[in-house]
């Protein structure tokens, strides 16, 4: 073999393998399961939500979304916007069964599966079990199998990394498939609104607009140092994403180390005024924790000051809270351990549960059997 050929062969062997990633997202999952199981609900605006004034929408069918209804909005608001909507109580037993059915279909194609929730997951099909030549073929077969076997629809995004696959799955919802080839990534991202980046909410999007960032292309055109000045370490991550770079692998069997929710205020406020949002976030975290068989032992409060300094306070009580009200009171009490003065302003607050244990004691198991009666709101899935 010629020296030039040997050199070329070595060069090719050192090239990183381009991953083939699929993001599968079930369409309006909870509402779709309800419509599948009850023919009288098909074609009608269905809202899945707990009863109660403080309840939030878990899922809204696409018929309901035409009226502006969406996940995570207050149920009373949804009822006002669409008075003829049909409200259905969540049934997580059936949702989990449908989710497991989809998971079994995924496993026919790959064991590299990273679930994000009951209704979505990343799949690494770089090496397909069935030997299909392209990730697009795999995605098509998965969607067909979900439709035929579960009588549900799913949207899928195919791309060389998780970031792009996530965006792609949302591109042609519902019941759609979109593919971003490696050489198309940067061109595709240039004119994409920054709000389409997973994790960029309304507050961050507004801050970006104040410094002239409206599209992903605008991020790529900005110096990393400038981005870090405005967004901290997240600025470098934003710059990588703007170039279509995401090296995070699909990690299967990843157990959550914590469950948390956080939000940023429109304007910086003193600690004493954070109570309403702490209560709201605690409600979301508590509802989400009810879907985990493990027991969390530690309550966490996170705060970010006006100056972008982050601090956390945590407590591992001898007896864990057994209701939403008790959990909320513990989270609120952690504010008393923040000693920065009444004049300190805060821009973000978060509430979380951590330190999970696989084998809860019998008292916890007894509580778990009655937990559903105490929860009035469910953390909405991003479906």
Automatic annotation (TrEMBL):
The keyword Amino-acid biosynthesis does not apply. Binds 2 magnesium ions per subunit. The record marks 30 as: Substrate discrimination. The gene is dinB. Its main location: cytoplasm. Pfam families: IMS, IMS_C, IMS_HHH_1. GO terms for cellular component: cytosol. Belongs to the DNA polymerase type-Y family. This is DNA polymerase IV. Keywords: Cytoplasm, DNA damage, DNA repair, DNA replication, DNA-binding, DNA-directed DNA polymerase, Magnesium, Metal-binding, Mutator protein, Nucleotidyltransferase, Transferase. GO terms for molecular function: damaged DNA binding; DNA-directed DNA polymerase activity; magnesium ion binding. NCBIfam families: PRK02406.1. Its cofactor is Mg(2+). Monomer. Mg(2+) binds at residues 25, 119. InterPro entries: DNA/RNA_pol_sf, DNA_pol_Y-fam_lit_finger_sf, DNA_pol_Y-fam_little_finger, DNA_polymerase-Y, DNApol_IV, IMS_HHH_1, Rev_trsase/Diguanyl_cyclase, UmuC. Its EC number is 2.7.7.7.
């Amino acid at each position: 073999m010629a020296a030039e050929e040997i050199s070329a062969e070595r060069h090719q062997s050192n090239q990183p393998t381009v991953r083939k990633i699929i993001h599968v997202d079930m369409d309006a999952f909870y509402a779709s399961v309800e419509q599948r199981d009850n023919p009288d609900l098909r074609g009608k605006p269905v809202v899945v939500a707990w009863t109660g004034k403080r309840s939030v929408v878990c899922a809204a069918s696409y018929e309901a979304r035409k009226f502006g209804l969406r996940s995570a909005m207050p149920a009373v608001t949804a009822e006002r916007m669409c008075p003829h909507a049909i409200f259905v109580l969540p049934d997580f037993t059936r949702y989990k069964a449908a989710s497991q059915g989809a998971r079994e279909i995924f496993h026919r194609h790959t064991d590299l599966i990273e679930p994000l929730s009951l209704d979505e997951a990343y799949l690494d099909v770089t090496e397909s079990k069935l030997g299909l030549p392209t990730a697009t073929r795999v995605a098509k077969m998965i969607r067909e199998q979900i439709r035929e076997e579960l009588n549900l629809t799913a949207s899928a995004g195919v791309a060389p990394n998780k970031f792009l696959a996530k965006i792609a799955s949302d591109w042609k919802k519902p019941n759609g498939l979109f593919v971003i080839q490696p050489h198309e990534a940067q061109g595709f991202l240039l004119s994409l609104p920054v709000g389409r980046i997973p994790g960029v909410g309304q507050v961050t999007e507004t801050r970006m607009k104040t410094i002239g960032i409206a599209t992903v292309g605008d991020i790529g055109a900005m110096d990393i140092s400038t981005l870090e000045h405005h967004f901290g370490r997240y600025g470098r991550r934003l710059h990588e994403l703007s170039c279509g770079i995401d090296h995070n692998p699909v990690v299967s069997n990843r157990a959550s180390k914590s469950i948390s929710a956080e939000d940023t205020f429109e304007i910086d406020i003193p600690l004493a005024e954070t109570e309403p949002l702490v209560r709201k976030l605690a409600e979301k975290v508590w509802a989400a924790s009810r879907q985990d068989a493990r027991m969390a032992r530690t309550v966490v409060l996170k705060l970010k000051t006006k100056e972008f300094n982050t601090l956390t306070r945590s407590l591992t009580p001898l007896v864990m809270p057994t209701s939403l009200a008790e959990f909320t009171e513990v989270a609120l009490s952690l504010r008393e351990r923040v000693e920065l003065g009444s004049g300190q302003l805060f821009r973000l607050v978060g509430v979380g549960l951590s330190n999970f244990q696989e084998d809860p004691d019998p008292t916890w198991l007894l509580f778990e059997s009655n937990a559903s009666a105490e929860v009035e709101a469910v953390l909405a899935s991003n479906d």
